[in-house]
Amino acid sequence: MAEYPQAFETIVQTLRRLPGVGRKSAIRYAFGIIGMSEEEVDEFACNLTEARKSLHSCVRCGNICEGDLCPVCLDDNRDGETLCVVEDVRALLALEKADGFNGRYHVLGGTISPLDGRGPEDVNLASLPGRIKNEGVKEVIIATNPTVDGESTALYIARMLKNTGVKVTRIGYGIPAGGDLDYADELTLTRAIDGRKEI
What we know:
This protein is an alpha/beta fold.
């Protein structure tokens, strides 16, 4: 069986470092790269390098940005009394895309996971109490994922903020729009019932 040249294999292994890119996808992308002209490859690499140098975390919320503050933190029309705590920037962008939240965010940059050796000091939690106090936050919405780590992180935050006087809520979970009840798992159905509201 013929093997790929080492230089090609290096491209494949490099691309596999990206989340969600398996070997087959990496091979397909690698063929795309070697099909480019030298100028195109140089531009491609230069764009990645420059973008990586320009992007960093917002000093206030942890979102990605090019300046000190991200566009959300710079927007004076946002509701400063409501703060939504999310695991990562992808969650923030998903909420922004849904266009149903007009408050501010606090990006944790991960979850607390004792099994993986991540404690509260390994995520962006230290600045949260200060933000609540200094920014006049009245409600904190915890929007971590419904995973074991997401749930334990949510409980930790709720306990941490218990005596601050701020209202702490958790996003609801349930049946997706257009979904059928008979396809939903037991946990989703239980959360849908528990998270019901009056209409």
